[in-house]
Amino acid sequence: MPINLDKTDLAILRALQDDGRMTNAELAEKVHLSPTPCLRRIKRLEQAGVIDHYTAEINRSLVGIEISAFVFVQLQRNSKENAAQFERAVEQLNEVQECFVVTGSYDYMLSVATRNLASYDRFIKEKLGDIETVAKVDTTIVLNQVKSRRQLPL
């Protein structure tokens, strides 16, 4: 259920999405608050789960991650037990960046990152392919990323 956010909360969230490393003093100035009330609002947003976590975005190519792929997975049988087993297994796979339950011909869509095609091949054959509930896998390799935006349109 959405939390009630005022214009100052939204300004704080927009600013933190743009630069999560800014100091509280810098943020307070940017959103026209003094530091103490700004920090109180941040703590309230964190405690309410609106601010889920803080992270650094890493340039994939500069750390040797050459392959990005979308992997569509169909389960053998669409049941609560199969879904739970698949989801537990996917949680253990470091190559899986995101996992979505989807509608249509497939049950899941995974965003996957690997070092190269050989490591992607091993991921499919030795990891994803070993999950008992998987019936079908279809892959789309990303050739070029045109846009990447993590910030939500608040």
TrEMBL record:
Gene3D superfamilies per UniProt: 3.30.70.920, Winged helix-like DNA-binding domain superfamily/Winged helix DNA-binding domain
Name recorded for this polypeptide: DNA-binding transcriptional regulator, Lrp family
Any one of the GO CC terms: cytosol
Source organism superkingdom: Bacteria
SMART domains named in the record: HTH_ASNC
A Gene Ontology BP annotation from the UniProt entry: regulation of DNA-templated transcription
Keywords carried by this UniProt record: DNA-binding, Transcription, Transcription regulation
CDD domains in the record: HTH_ARSR (cd00090)
Domain HTH asnC-type positions: 5-66
Pfam families assigned to the protein according to its UniProt record, in alphabetical order: AsnC_trans_reg (PF01037), HTH_24 (PF13412)
